[in-house]
Each structure stands twice: as structure tokens, then as C-alpha cells.
Amino acid sequence: MSGGKWVDPAPFEGARPRVPWWVLVPGRAKWIAALVALVWLAVVLAVRLVLVVVRYPVVVLVPVSAAWCWWRFGLSPLVLALLSLVAALIIWSGLDRTSFLRHCWYRLVTEWRRATVYVPRWRTVMRLADLTKLDRRKEYRPTLRRVRSEGWRDRVRVRMVPAQSPEVWELRRDGLAHSFHARSCRVRVLRPRVIELDFIHRDPLARPLPVSVLADAEVDLKRVTVGRTETGKPWRLRLLGSQLLVVGVPGAGKGSVLWSIVWQLAPAIRAGLVRLVGIDPKGGMELGQCPDAFDRVVYDNGPEAVALLEEIAAEVKERATRYRGVRRLWVRSSGEPFTVLVVDELADLIAYQPDKQLRERAARAIQTITSQGRAPGYAVVGLVQDPRKEVVSFRHLFTTRVALRLDEPQQVDMVLGDGVRQRGAAAHEISENTPGVAWIKQDGQREPERARAFHVTDADLVELGAFLADATVHDFPTRPDGTEGRNAA
Ligand SMILES: Nc1ncnc2c1ncn2[C@@H]1O[C@H](COP(=O)(O)OP(=O)(O)OP(=O)(O)O)[C@@H](O)[C@H]1O
Q1: Closest approach atom of ligand 1 to CA 259
Q2: Which pTM was predicted?
Q3: What's the rounded Cα separation, in Å, for the pair 379 and 244?
Q4: CATH 3.30.980 residue ranges for the chain
Q5: Is 424 annotated to bind ligand?
Q6: In Å, how far are 79, 91, 102 from 84, measured between CA atoms?
Q7: Candidates 256, 258, 456: which one to mutate for ligand 1, based on the most atoms within 8 Å of Cβ?
Q8: Is 251 annotated as a binding residue?
Q9: In the chain, which residues fall in CATH 3.40.50.300?
Q10: Residues 353-399: tens digit of each pLDDT
């Protein structure tokens, strides 16, 4: 104040002290925040620990138990316990090798491969394969989830990064296989954002499978076992209510699929429950190997074959009319045999036949049998070498499609349908050394299956013929001097 007037003092020019924000937070709030952070850290650590125990149970629990045993009882009981454990494992593997491998050995392999192959290389491989995404300096990386080793393959579950599609992984299958030391890699979609990579180490179907002993047994037409799948389960084909298309290049093993079916149906054929009708345009090269199996067979693709097809188509229509409103699917008690029509080279009838009229009549008849034969008990087993357009246009009529070895990836799409090859069904990669190996796609089943048909040898076909031939009484041979042989009595 000067003479009653206010004089503004000089403004304060010192720098305002800069203190971190948390200094301004009241002391109590700081304690609460620190406590929350500590609890959070403890929870994260506990979850991580649980994950380690879940992912590496053997590696974690065995040493921990051993350490506890040593501390509690001393060294000698520990050595005794370990020796007993080893002895128990040896006995287990001797008594039941399959369950030992599944529940013990493959568990160890799983942990070993996770720790030595997948975890150490995951980040680098993902980056180099361009499977990571960078957004605002944050890296999004696919997460390695569950790993399961089954000896011949490792199943690796992955959570994809947002906005990534399985096709991106499809394109990198080869690179991923090499990176993780596998022979090949398949990609399967499990659910949104989660895929499973199958890293294949060896082919479990490398060895031919012999057929089972031929004996009178009950035949289930919904589950005809014709081989084994790569997971070790029986390969079962549904014939009742289904139509089957088998495609493969020459020598791919179409014959083995066909004869495996006939082999399994043999008891029912002998009992008259199942009737086989065949058309072999190759002059009997295939079906002529066991004509006894067939009720009727035509070795031609001309008028006789077409007449047979039309006859069966008429039967289908007639039976369908009778069954209408009575039953929806053929049953044994109908008193009429279940009919299986085998066409060895379908393309010969509906594509290569030079006579246009015959070709069209054959196509019409096949269409009728496949589309209407389900309920009246008619199944078609169509074998094809060359999946050309004319044949593939029939594809949708066949509910089960079997792709044996094929030449080109496009052919796989033509036979199995779009998108099935992307789910791993690489029929064009089947080795020439494994005839009878096939990829199977059944309608209503999302995932294709890989399997191998039984190997039906020429000797087996002779046995099959003898099993199905009508019993004939043969004269006992007589000796040249006219006396009867020893067995004649
Ligand atoms: N499941 C199988 N296991 C082992 N070997 C097989 C199997 N199937 C077929 N083979 C062998 O592969 C060869 C070719 O088989 P097959 O004649 O059945 O092929 P295909 O596809 O019918 O040929 P084509 O179209 O020329 O008739 C044969 O020597 C056969 O012994």
C-alpha cells in the first residue's frame, strides 16, 4: 500500500517444484494400491505356476515328490521308491503297451517337445513366418496353447491373433513343418480363433493291413469296417442310407476299398441279406476276380450294362413306392435283400461311352438310384480313375467320398468338395508306396479322415470266392487202378 493505493509486488519467478503424481496421492490410498498390486502379482505368479504344473506335470511333480520323499524318509527309501516305479513302468509296458504309450510315454514326449521345440522357437518362427501383427508399437503374437504328442504326430493348439484367418496358416504349412522339424503340417479349425496344427513325424499307415478272418458274423450295414484310420480306429463305412464314391489314379488301391467292403459283407451275402450287382466296363479285370460274390454282373459299358442300370432304377422306384408311408429306411425285416451296385469305372458309363443315347440313359439311371435308393435299401459304390467334370457333377449324390491317391490338388477339391483340402485332406500328397491310403469325407462330418483299406490279396479273393460259392459235392479222386482213395471212406 502506498498512499492508500495498492502496489502489485513483483511476480514470483521461481520454478514450481515438479513432484511425481503419486506423492500427491494420500498415504492410505497408496497402501491400498500397493496391496492390490501385490495381490495381483501373487495371482499372476500362482496362475503361471499352475500352468507350468499343468503343462509339465511329470517334469515338475516327479522331482518335487522325490525331493519331499528324501527330506521326509531319507535316501534309501527314495532309491527303493524310484526302483519300484521303474519296475512298475516296465511291467505296465509289457502288459499293455498301448495304454503305457498313451498315458505315460507320450506324456513325457509331449513335455519334452513342448519344452525343447515349440516354446523356444515359437516367437521367432511366428515373426519370420509373418504370423505376428504390429499395431501402435504393440506386437500381437499367436499364442501357443496345448501341445499333445501322439508319437507319429504332435497336435499343437494355437490362438490366432485378431483378424487372422486359418487360410493364412494354410499358406505357411510347409514352412511351419520345416521350422518345427516335422515332415508335414495340417491345419484344422477347432472353434473361432482357435486352430490346431498337426505336425506329422511319420505315417502310421505305412504298413499294409491284412484282412480279418472270414467267418459267419453279424454285419452292420451302418458300420462296415474296411480298414483303419491313422488314429488307430477302425475305418467304418456306412452303406445303409448312403452312397459311396471312390476316386483314385490307376494303382491307388480302389480295388482294395471295393474288396474290403465285399469281404466284410460276405457273411450277409452268403445269408442272402445283401445282394451285389456289378458292372465292370473293363471287361471283368476287377469284378471278374471274384464273380461268386455277385448276384448279377456285366463286363461291359454297352447296352447290357445300361439295361441293368435301368432295371435297378425301376426296382428302386417300385420299392420306394411300396415303402412310402411305411418305412423311411430299409430294414432287415422287410424281407428284401439290401442291394449294393458296384460300378468299377463310372466314367466309362457316363463320360467315355461314345453313344450319346446310352450315355444319357446310364446317367439318368445312376441319378435315380443314388438319389432315391437310400430308403428302399440300394447303395451305389462307384469307382472312378479320373475325376473329370462329367463324373464330378454327380459328386453331390454320393454322401461318402473317398479320395485315394490323386495327381493334382484341384482333383482333391473336385472329389471331396471345396475347403476340404484346406482342412488337411491332401490326397495329392499320398505316396505311391502306400496304395489303399485315402482321405474320406462323409456328409455331415466336418473333418475329413485319413485311413487305409485292408489289403485283399489274390489268395484272399480265392478264399472269398470259396466262402461265397454254393456248396458243391466233389467226387473223391480214384486211383488209376480203379480203387478208391484213402479218404473215400
Ligand atoms: N490297401 C492296400 N494295401 C497294400 N497294398 C495295396 C492295397 N491296395 C492295393 N494295393 C496294391 O497296389 C496295387 C494296385 O492296387 P489296385 O489294383 O487295387 O489299384 P486300382 O486303383 O484298383 O488300380 P486300377 O485303377 O488300375 O484298377 C496292387 O499291387 C495291390 O496289391
Answers
A1: 18
A2: 0.78
A3: 8
A4: 69-200
A5: no
A6: 9, 10, 21
A7: 256
A8: yes
A9: 209-468
A10: 778 888 889 889 998 999 888 888 899 999 998 877 667 677 788 99
